[in-house]
Request: fold
Amino acid sequence: MPLHACLLQLIKRVQLKRKEVDDVLGGEEAWANVQKTDVTCPKCTYHQAYFMEIQIRSADEPATLFFKCVQCAAQWREG
Ligand SMILES: [Zn+2]
Reply:
């Protein structure tokens, strides 16, 4: 596969992932008035991030934690 095709696929995958998160959370507005917690950002290593706990699978499975860095606005999830 040519290199640029690989890159395009990678970019597409990242964008889809981001969209998936936005769909679950409802976009930027969802982060208004949420709590902050002490956690290290994987991108800039800042020590605080906003967090939300959301049940995205069946009710008997553990909820997924979503984080958004206070400093660089990077988003990630756990669970
Ligand atoms: Zn960060």
Observations:
- Helices lie at 3-25.
- The CA atoms of residues 22 and 30 lie 9 Å apart.
